[in-house]
Design brief:
Number of domains: 2
Organism: Cerina litoralis
CATH topology of the largest domain: Aspartate Aminotransferase, domain 2
Distance between the termini: 48 Å
Enzyme class: transferase
Helix content: 25-40%
Cofactor: pyridoxal 5'-phosphate
Largest sheet: 7 strands, mixed
Family: Belongs to the class-V pyridoxal-phosphate-dependent aminotransferase family. Csd subfamily.
Strand order of the largest sheet: 4-10-9-8-7-5-6
Number of strands: 17
EC number: 2.8.1.7
Strand content: 15-25%
Bound molecules: pyridoxal-5'-phosphate
Amino acid sequence: MINTVFDILTIRTDFPILNRKVNGYPLVYLDNAATSQTPQQVIDVIVDYYRNYNANIHRGVHALSQEATDKYEEARLKIQKHFNAAKSHEIIFTSGTTQGINLVANSFSTFLKPGDELLVSAMEHHSNIVPWQMLCERTGAILKVIPMNEDGVLLMDTFKDLLSNRTKLVFCNHVSNALGTINPIQEIIEESHTIGAAVLIDGAQAAPHIKADMQKLDVDFYTVSAHKMCGPTGVGILYGKEEWLNKMPPYQGGGEMIAEVTFEKTTYADLPHKFEAGTPNICGGIAFGAALDYMNAIGFDSIASYEQELLQYATQKLTMIEGLRIYGTAKEKTSVISFNIQGIHPYDIGTILDKLGIAVRTGHHCAQPVMDFYHIPGTVRASFNFYNTKEEVDVLVEGVRRAKKMLL
Ligand SMILES: *Cc1c(COP(=O)(O)O)cnc(C)c1O
């Protein structure tokens, strides 16, 4: 396994995809905020599942089904431990952050009446906006926005003014995928709780960089996608406090989530199964556990400090390019840099970078309100993970300079 010292070359050998070429150039993968790459250790777990014990869980008496069930439940325990949830049944497997949010947005509607208020931050991903708008349409609740400033920092005084005894739920991302801002979620949770509002934190962008502690945060709901933290796509978790999950009705009906079904009345299974209708992504859940093992073996403190080094290095180098503006200049940031060059469309820069083997994201990053705030159509976003290097930052900077020369 990996040394305790941060050995970037050894780490990179764990990721076979980093060796490939794109358009004749070595791949420089800087789209980690959209999805992260998968280490061989996790790929092995996926292959092992399908080769050796693929079976449906919680149902069969046969050996394969037992093995798959044990491994799947073991993964739940790993996830519980990683996020320091008090109970393993507070970890609900989902298909990802989007489903986790939709689950809460659906089931929480039983607690809402017309005129109740929901607070959303100005820097949310669409998946933490649209489900709540749909909820408001169904219930007559009202959505209010916590504004931000030019640096991409939430205005906490306005947030406190917006809180009232009508506020039932507050939702905010832990880290903004468009700007990289790390939001003061501990304060948001504490303030919201003083007036009895529940809080959902979208942890999709934070979880790859910050180890969040559910009990310390005292958060009500927290959502994560495995594919942003070295795991596969199509799997994630919703953490929910037991008392909320017990009070909330199920999200979807089907197999696995019932205790007893008759045509007169159906009773629901206990947590977590009440919220896990149908056959889940079994292999994905097990691989998610393996991804956490992999990242924890490196250590989140080492990961965070190395990524901060990359962030500072890249920020310093990019700001030396004349006409380049970085969006998202909060003091507390993860390794995400959103930028534009005056007079050039972000898409054009992205296209030229791709020709040079450099993968970045261009566009609104599923956060159109953030782009509207800055009056821009989108940005170029370079997002770094612990397996990126300073040499790759240099390649990016050189690529951006070349693009600028070609396009201006
Ligand atoms: C990626 C992301 C999502 C959506 O995650 P899915 O895996 O697509 O469900 C939501 N919020 C933030 C902040 C994200 O970065």
